[in-house]
Specification:
By secondary structure, the chain is an alpha+beta fold. Helices cover 37% and strands 22% of the residues. Helix 3 crosses helix 4 and helix 5 crosses helix 7. The longest helix is centred in the first third of the chain and has 35 residues. The chain is globular, with a radius of gyration of 26 Å.
Length: 394
């Protein structure tokens, strides 16, 4: 199997070949024949496929690194606790009781008493602390926004974040004159808690199969469903019963001249519409179809704007800044915000501590299935709208 480095080099070489083909195809009247368009799109689709394969291999490598890391301290001589005995939802007793209930529906008095510390108001049980970390890791793998934003956790209540609405200024003052007052004005952004839930169904036969790993299955399925719903809301959410998406708060940096195309100048204008302090950590984000259009654009020096990442972990770039792809960014259509550029660390996600599971024994019994209701509470908002700019189609 080819290594990640080999695949990156192969993709970079194919991109160079694709650029040369596109340049040659455009020589006459800057037009491309239908036959050449078909050839170009085949070459580009291979570049996209290689990029996806690289992403998968890099995620697998990161997962293996986490799985191979030591999970405990080896016992050398006499076991020592050093006062660090795990309690509450981090204890081994809670973990064992939780999974006995989830997989085997064993709710003895001892199990019931152990799980009391994790009972939620909706009749479910909060997952063990270590398993919660696994769920969050998997959510980050499935959700691009989680890796770019600021994640905070809180037990309950709204999280109020103070932000500076406007800054005071210094003024030149004549000798003996009064000082001019100029104060900063402060506002607050409130992060609440919206409920995101799903029901995972598992057959009774599968649950009774000793080879079936319920923990792994639920964490993977949880991440797939919740990660997709989170990313959609973090980008496009309207704030009603869900987080407020970055596109609903970010400022428009550029309005395109056409309703169905984007130009090099508009991307450069977007870059410079963002204030300099935000640019050092800024990233681009768009859909696959928008990146496809950008791949054909050049700067004033004849260099293509899009460049592939050549080293492991290095993203593709536009104007030397990383470009990320999301299936939930709008397509190139009139009125849509198709490309954003900004420092997404100013998009804050508030996770309520404790994701909750509940085993549903009767609801799907007639179909020979057991349900697992999973939910979490969270919110998200861009706390500084000026930190992210967008291209909006005419």
């Amino acid at each position: 199997m080819a290594s990640i480095t080999d695949l990156r080099q192969k993709r970079a070489a194919l991109w160079e070949k694709t650029k040369k083909f596109l340049d040659n195809a455009k020589r006459e009247n800057d037009m491309i024949s239908a036959e050449d368009v078909e050839t170009y799109e085949k070459m580009e689709s291979e570049i996209v496929a290689l990029g996806k394969e690289i992403d998968i291999l890099e995620r697998q490598a990161e997962m293996e690194k986490r799985l191979n890391s030591p999970v405990n301290t080896p016992v050398l001589e006499t076991p020592k606790t050093n006062g660090n005995t795990k309690t509450g939802r981090a204890s081994d007793e809670y973990k064992q009781a939780f999974w006995k209930l989830m997989k085997n529906n064993q709710l003895s008095y001892s199990v019931h008493d152990t799980l009391q510390i994790g009972t939620d108001s909706d009749g479910g049980y909060l997952v063990p602390d270590e398993y919660e970390a696994v769920l969050i890791d998997k959510l980050a793998d499935e959700n691009i926004m989680r890796g770019l934003t600021t994640i905070i956790t809180s037990a309950n209540g709204d999280k109020k974040i103070p932000v500076v609405a406007s800054h005071g200024e210094a003024v030149w003052t004549d000798e003996g004159s009064e000082y001019t007052e100029s104060d900063d004005e402060f506002g607050t952004v409130s992060l609440g808690a919206h409920k995101l839930s799903t029901i995972i169904k598992v057959s009774e036969e599968l649950l009774n199969d000793s080879a079936f790993n319920l923990e792994t299955y639920i964490s993977s399925e949880f991440a797939r469903r919740m990660g997709a719903a989170e990313e959609l809301a973090f980008i496009n959410g309207n704030g009603t019963g869900k987080p407020t998406g970055v596109l609903n708060t970010a400022e428009v940096g550029v309005t395109s001249a056409a309703s169905n195309a984007i130009t090099t100048d508009e991307i450069i204008d977007l870059y410079h519409s963002l204030r300099t302090p935000y640019r050092k950590n800024a990233v681009f984000m768009s859909s696959d179809s928008t990146i496809k259009a950008i791949r054909k654009l050049k700067d004033s020096n004849g260099q293509y704007l899009w460049q592939p990442g050549l080293q492991a972990g290095q993203p593709d770039t536009i104007l030397n800044r990383p470009i990320h792809t999301s299936a939930y960014m709008p397509e190139i259509e009139s009125g849509n915000k198709i490309l954003l550029f900004g420092d997404l660390s100013y998009y804050w996600v508030a996770d309520r501590q404790g994701r909750s599971f509940q085993r549903l024994n009767e609801l799907f019994a007639k179909n020979g299935q057991v349900g697992f209701r999973v939910f979490q509470r969270l919110d998200g908002k861009l706390i500084l709208p000026e930190s992210v700019k967008t291209v909006q189609m005419k």
